[in-house]
Specification:
Order of helices and strands: EHEEEEHHHEHEHHEEHEE
Largest sheet: 5 strands, antiparallel
Oligomer: single chain
Helix content: 25-40%
Shape: globular
Number of strands: 11
Amino acid sequence: MNLKAFLPHDLLFLRPQTLLPADAPAWAQDSIKEGLPCVVRRDSFSLEKLPVAFRGTQRSQRYGSFISSQDVLKKFSPEDAVALLSSTDLQSSQIDYLKELSEIIQANEELKNSVKWGVSGSFGFSLAVGRQYFRDTSDIDLVVRANNEEELKCLASLKSWILTPKFQLDIQIQTSKGGFSYKEWLKTKKVLLKTNTGPLLTDNPW
């Protein structure tokens, strides 16, 4: 894999032999042995130093580290999570909600061809491993790719639906420069852009 193959929110399944630093918590090292993925986070990148984060069974169990691309067995993107919605055995009202969103997008030719989206967070993680790692109160994390502001406008027809208070949604817009909150963009058009070198307040996240 080349460096451009790895994006924030991607889940990485690692070789069981992958070793974390000596000060890493035991649960993080155990998660690798159990075949659980880590997630790519924002930081400086190199093929020998990919920034990742590990999650445990408890909310307080979060650990950031770096791994080598040579330790990666498989990459699972937020878009891959969407592809599994129709076949997953996971059951919850949030999963049903995501299935409905996927069906609406697929049924609309314009949306189908223009909206590049995926599921991240606890629901993306659960879809990747086939086991439930979310709670009834968990937020739904979505990733939408937008190379320019014009592409972002395609979400307008979904605005009232995806911002429904039925569930708490965290929609992150991903550009080539970084990521920002869609809700923040709708309110101010000046957003805190999360980049690999730190946050940046800007009205042009592209």
